[in-house]
Predict the structure.
Amino acid sequence: MRFLSLAFFLPILYFIWAWFDVNILPTLYQFDPKVLQEVSQKAIAAHGNNTEALFEALVSGLREEYGELVAPLDYSPWFFNNAGGAMGAMIILHASISEYLIIFGTPLETEGHSGIHMANDYFTILQGEQLAFSPGELYARSYKAGEQNIYLRGARAQYSMPEGCWALELAQGWIPAMLPFGFADTFSSTLDWGNLWTTVYETARMMGRSALQGKF
C-alpha cells in the first residue's frame, strides 16, 4: 500500500517541482552575470595588483548596482571552504534560496572537483588564474583576471588555482541543494567543526538577511 502511495505521489511532486523550477525559480534571480563581470573588470583595471583595494572597489561597485542585496565588505566573517578536495577561503556577499554571491580563493594553490549542482555557476577571476578541464578535453582551459568561467547546471570539471587566485562567484539555482557539497569534506577529512559552524551560521544569517528584504 505504501509503495502504491509513493508511486502515485512522487510523479505529482516531481511535476510540481519541475513547474516551479522552470516558471518560478528564474524570476527570483536578481544578479546579471554580465554586469558582475563588468564591475569586476573595472575594479581589476583600477586595483589589479592590490587585493584589498580591489575587493573594496568591487564590493562598492556591486552595491552601486544592487544596493542592499550585496552586503558591505567585512573581513571578520571570512571562513574556509573545503569542497571536492579543494580548499580556499570565502566571504558571503549575498545568499538566498535562489542565488549566492561570494568572493572565494586562496593566496596559495588548490585543486579539486567542481561538484555537480542544480545551479548555474559564474566564476569571474579577480586575480591569478584558474585552469579547468572536463572529461574528453585534452587540454586545460585557462581563465585569467577579468574572464568568466561558466559551469551550467549538471556540469562537472576538475579545476585548479595553481599560483593563488581570487574570484567572484555567482550561483543561480537551488542553493540549498549545493550545501551538502560544501559540508561533506568536514565529515570525511578536515573534522573542522568550528569552521562548519561558521559556514552554517553565516549562510543562515545571510539568507535571513535576504528574506527580510523579500529576496528568496
In short: The longest strand covers residues 119-133.
